Amino acid sequence: MIRVMLCGAADTSRVQDEFVRTVTDFGGVSWHFLDGTVNYINSASSDWEENSRATVQEADVCVFVIVEEIGRITWETEVTAALLAGKPFLVLCLHATYQRYLVLNAAFRPPAALDLLPENERDLVRTLREIEQERRLTAVPFDHGRFGEILRRELSKLFDIALGQMEERNRRKSIRPLLNDPARLTVTDLRAAQAIAVDEWEDKQVRKVALRALAARRALDAEALHSLLASSEQGVRRMTVELLADLHPVRPPDPDLLEHVVAVANSSDDVGVHRRLIPVLLAMDLPSGIEAMTLLELEDVGSKRRLAAALEAHEDAVARQGLQAAVTALLERCLSQTSESDWKTRCRAYLARLGLEPAPPGPET
């Protein structure tokens, strides 16, 4: 059975009966500290905040309610616990209380101090500002006698979202066997494959298989491509660069996209992105690739070596298309001696502090 926790100050007793009836009608179990349905352990080290945090962890849905008073534990402990645990939750506020907040918020806009207000009004303004302006949460107003109706409507919305996510998860599972045979994927399947590829919470290997399928079908949209280039998963980001020619099949390629990819590589501390990008850019379109390469940082020796080799592999095309001047500039950058790496400088300074004479810097290899 679904466990729904009512969170708020002691005056939530005014909506407790409607809360219990509504949750029961949903086939759920209601939890509220006023009727003792919270997790607790009585001992010398008992702590109400720990009890509340533990109850949030066990609940399936949390309903945070502001009637008139602000419960300290609710807004300092329980909301944070729900957010960190990824719990679905609702925020409901008595309409009259919310209107009072709007008036006070307009009268005491930052940087105006709230010290002139009574404590309960200060707490109200600070709490609702945190909810709406800092955490970007939505507080749903309710009127006296309509709490159960509003709660039923908002719980229904949560269930609708949950069912939609179950449907999406089932759809993803159904197409996984097809990802290794991209030709069989329908338009709907390709949309699901793209959703898998960009999902940072999805299994890394499944994302990679989806990415290969999308590249094979050349079926990735621009927004998804930018998302994948910014992925926090190193392997996915590298594969996106490797498959860039198929993920962005437009020829000549969009100069803004090439500039963006180079900027991504420059801002990354993963040299693997640099090294994969070099041959891909030149293979996509030689003039555009060479132009984009002028923006690529070449501090890594391996990247210089790969760029020189990639340019040499295109030697005939360079001569045929009259690109010798641009290629000359890139080759000179490959041969240039850059400043010594910061870690080597620190290492030599440490040797000097140890009283040893560090060896002079050798030639770059």
What this model shows, in words?
- By secondary structure, this protein is α/β, with parallel strands linked by helices.
- The protein contains 18 helices and 5 strands.
- The chain has helices spanning 13-25, 48-58, 72-85, 95-107, 119-134, 147-175, 187-198, 204-217, 222-229, 234-242, 244-247, 255-267, 271-284, 286-293, 301-313, 315-320, 324-335, 342-353, and strands at 3-7, 29-32, 61-66, 89-94, 140-142.
- A 5-stranded parallel β-sheet has the order 2-1-3-4-5, sandwiched between helices.
- Helix 6 (147-175) crosses helix 7 (187-198), helix 10 (234-242) runs parallel beside helix 13 and helix 13 (271-284) runs parallel beside helix 15.
- It is elongated, with a radius of gyration of 30 Å.
- The mean pLDDT is 90.
State the gist of this model.
This protein is an alpha/beta fold and about 375 residues long.
